[in-house]
Amino acid sequence: MPLFDRKDKSRYASFTRRTLLVTGGMTGVFAALAGRLYQLQVIEGQEFMTRAEDNRVNERLTAPLRGRILDRFGVELATNRRNFRVLVVPEQATDGVKAALATLGRVIVIGDAERDRVLREVTANKPFVPVLVADNLDWDQFASINLHLPYLSGIQPDVGETRSYPFADEMSHILGYVASVSPEEMRADDDPLLSLPGFRIGKRGIEKEFESEIRGKAGAERVEVNAYGRVIRELSRDPGTPGSDVYLTIDEQVQNFLAQRMAGESAACVMMDVSNGDVLALASTPGFDPNLFNVGITNAQWKALLDDDHKPLLNKAIDGVYPPGSTFKPCVAMGAVDMGLGDFTTFCTGSITLGDHVFHCWKPSGHGHVDMRTGIQHSCDVFFWELSKRMGIDAIEDTAYKLGLGKLTGIELPGERAGTVPGRAWKQSTFGVPWQQGDTLVAAIGQGYTLATPLQLCTATARIASGNQIAPRITRVVGNTVQPRPEKLALPFSDAAILTVQEGMQMVLQPGGTAYGFRITEPGYEMAGKTGTAQVRKITESEHLAGVKKNATLPWKLRDHGLFVGFAPIQAPRYACACVVEHHSDGHPQVQIVRDALLFAQQRRTAELPTDYPISAAKNLMPQGSRT
Amino acid sequence: MNARAYAAARRTLSAADKLAEINWGLVLLIAVIACIGFAMLYSVAGGHFSPWADKQIVRFAIGMILLVGVALVDIRVWMNIAYPAYAASLLLLVAVEIAGRVGLGAQRWLELGPLQLQPSEPMKIALILALARYLHGLGVEDVSKPLKLFIPLAMIGAPTVLVLMQPNLGTATILTADGCSLLFLAGLSWWWIAPTVTGVIGAIPVAWRFLHDYQKQRILTFLHPQNDALGAGWNISQAEIAIGSGGVGGKGFGQGTQSQLNFLPEKETDFIFTSIGEEFGFIGAVTLLVLFAVVIGYGIRIGMSSRSQFGRLVALGVTLNFFFYIMINAAMVMGLIPVVGIPMPLISYGGTAMLTVMIGFGLLMSVHVHRQVEIPRGAAGLF
Question: What is this structure's pTM?
Answer without folding.
Answer: 0.67
